[in-house]
Specification:
Largest sheet: 8 strands, parallel
Protein name: Leucine-rich repeat
Radius of gyration: 24 Å
Structural class: alpha/beta
Number of strands: 8
Low-confidence stretches: 1-12, 271-298
Strand order of the largest sheet: 1-2-3-4-5-6-7-8
Distance between the termini: 100 Å
Pfam family, one: F-box-like
Mean pLDDT: 83
Helix content: 40-55%
InterPro entries: F-box_dom (IPR001810), Leu-rich_rpt (IPR001611)
Organism: Arabidopsis thaliana x Arabidopsis arenosa
Length: 298
């Protein structure tokens, strides 16, 4: 009996019309997809699925997490993201954008999403200090912010802190040397200390921060429970500051701790490799110049 029932069950599965699933079940299934899959694939399956994807509650969280080659991408991600934001009808609470963020897109989101609680802008190098300053004054309810490997810093971050008093999580992960370029390695740490007193979770992976900046954060952010300083090699955990961190902070990640769980680990090491190559090229050019100068003098 058992063996004869298997083909019957398989036949029932084959004949099932997925378009006739209850809308609540369809919503539950589609809600597990990212925005790109929904807009480019799922909503085109059938009329009933398209109807479900137009429900504003489908767009309370928007995931535009793209890891492919941006140079060969086939989608207009910015237009796609705007369309997803429009479908949220003001109900957007969380959005995740990788690579393609711009000042215009950031302000488009801010203008239509005053209830936004969580924002990730990863590797969005086209976003400027001016764009940040204009957009974040419109996001007073923001609680979680991840701006890993973005170019803006300093005073634009102060505007973020002043405009978003509920901010609890800040992830400001950097590529090697980005803060040192301005010869102000503690600029971000000092701004964080002065404008973001309610932070609980701070991640500063790869920053140029030193002990001065760390002490500023410990003084200005008394509620910090999780502090990640991995790859912050200018930090010197001498007895007093080590004790201060260990006693006050529940989860403390030190500069030389493992990076196995860091989501951008490969990106950081590629940046290091690229930076090393650039330094080597500069050194070779200097050597060539020295050789040319020596030859001309001879």
């Amino acid at each position: 009996m058992a063996s004869s029932s298997v083909p019957s069950l398989m036949k029932d599965e084959e004949l099932r019309n997925w378009a006739e699933l209850p809308s609540e079940l369809t919503f539950s299934i589609l809600n597990r997809l990212d925005a790109i899959d929904i807009l480019e694939n799922a909503q085109k399956v059938c009329t009933s699925w398209r109807r479900v994807t137009k429900d504003p509650s489908m767009w309370r969280k928007i995931d535009m997490h793209y890891l492919g080659d941006m140079g060969s991408m086939i989608y207009d991600f910015e237009s796609m993201c705007r369309h997803a934001v429009d479908r949220s009808q003001g109900g957007l609470v969380e959005i995740d954008i990788w690579h393609f963020g711009t000042d215009d897109l950031l302000n488009y989101i801010a203008d239509r999403s005053s209830n936004l609680r969580s924002l990730r802008l990863a590797m969005c190098n086209q976003i400027t200090d001016e764009g940040v300053t204009e957009a974040f004054v419109k996001l007073p309810l923001l609680e979680d912010l991840d701006v890993s490997f973005c170019a803006f810093l300093g005073e634009s971050l102060r505007v973020v802190g002043q405009s978003c008093p509920n901010l609890k999580t800040l992830k400001l992960n950097r590529s090697p040397g980005i803060d040192c370029f301005l010869f102000r390695p503690n600029i971000n740490a000092i701004v964080i200390a002065e404008s973001m007193p309610n932070l609980r979770h701070i991640q500063l992976f790869g920053n140029e921060i030193n002990n001065t900046g760390l002490n500023a954060i410990l003084d200005g952010c008394p509620h910090v429970e999780h502090l990640d300083l991995r790859k912050c090699f200018n930090i010197n955990l001498v007895e007093d500051i080590e004790k201060r961190c260990s006693e006050r902070i529940g989860v403390f990640r030190r500069p030389y701790d493992s990076t196995a769980d860091f989501p951008f680990d490969n990106i950081w090491f590629l940046a290091c490799y690229s930076d090393s190559d650039s330094d080597s090229d500069d050194a070779d050019m200097d050597d060539d110049c020295d050789d040319d100068s020596s030859s001309s003098m001879a």
